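Subject line: Sequence and fold of a protein, written as structure tokens
Enclosed: The protein record, placed directly beneath this head.
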Amino acid sequence: MAIPICDIRWLLLAAAVAFIFIQMRLFATQSEYADRVAAAVEAENHCTNQMRLLIDQISMQQGRIVALEDEKKRRDEECGQLKALVKDLERRGLERLVDKVQVPVAAVVIMACNRANYLERTINSVFKYVLTFRYQGSVASKYPLFVSQDGSNPQVKSKALSYDKLTYMQHLDFEPVHADNPGELTAYYKIARHYKWALDNLFYKHNFSRVIILEDDMEIAPDFFDYFEAAADLLDKDKSIMAVSSWNDNGQKQFVHDPYVLYRSDFFPGLGWMLTRTTWDELSPKWPKAYPCCYFSLFFFSLGSSLGQFFQQYLAPIKLNDVPVDWKSRDLSYLIKDNYEKYFAEIVKKATPVHGENVVLKAHDIEGDVRIEYKDQSHFEIIARQFGIFNEWKDGIPRTAYKGVVVFRYQTPRRIFLVGPDSLRQLGIKDP
């Protein structure tokens, strides 16, 4: 069957159109693919660039970390060198260069009134040890010196102001004194007011933690400052010790022997003593109107020298210690309350009891320590007069007594213990 020529042409045309369409679609697909490939390549290049930038930043940070570590090592080395230098400076004692910030052990105040020549002697006695080469710069900063004058005596004021290494204070009291009892000395009321005023100033105005009180007629021993520095540690440890004194009422040369021995006492001697601010906080509000009339649990040592009542018999013979004891190197733990009661009871217990009449003669014939019991105050006064020690009592307590026991040396190293009627029981000693 013959096919018409026109039909073949239409078929060829349709085929040509289809071919062209296919080629165009193929070209469009290839172009789109090329574009996509180009975009992918561009994205890859961007990512690569970002990665390189991040790597560069990490490298920079690592460099900084290494630099910081090196800086830390350098500063640690410098810190170690500085610590070693500080230790070396402390070892060589160059801390004296900062004495101006030295925390004082205690203020020392000399209580004065109207005796310029006595005041001068006491000040010179203190400066004798403050200004020596051994103590210079150390004691002066540890123990600031004050003079507190009661009244307006011009000679005393002039004498105190003539020294440039002390601080002068003046107490002017114009309030009239009204004694509680007829014939009572008004001087005791004046003294009480002066002491309270001075101690309030030193503790609350100058803010000292401890104060040492000296009368204007006392001289100090070579170990005075070492003694109070060691005693300050005891005051901090044992709250039953309310004050520390460098005075012994029975410190006459015939009654002392060992400069290394300290005792506790229930009697307040009132001379050359130190107390803390804590104690003063308690005492100041109830300070007595007349001085002296308060008693503390304290310990004492025969260092002082004074002039006053009973001078010829009791005060002139006082032994001023001349042995420079290094108190800070000594073990004073036996003075802690619990330790001391055992220690003191043991030495009293070992003493040989003496009874009856002529106790002085009997004690003289015994080698070693002697224990003599008194029945009451009048009996004690008889025995005390026989030996020559203080026979005075205050508020039922003999001078220097601890639990009623008064101890002193007699002619030789032997100790005499005058024991009260209840003393052995208080010390836990069974009377044989």
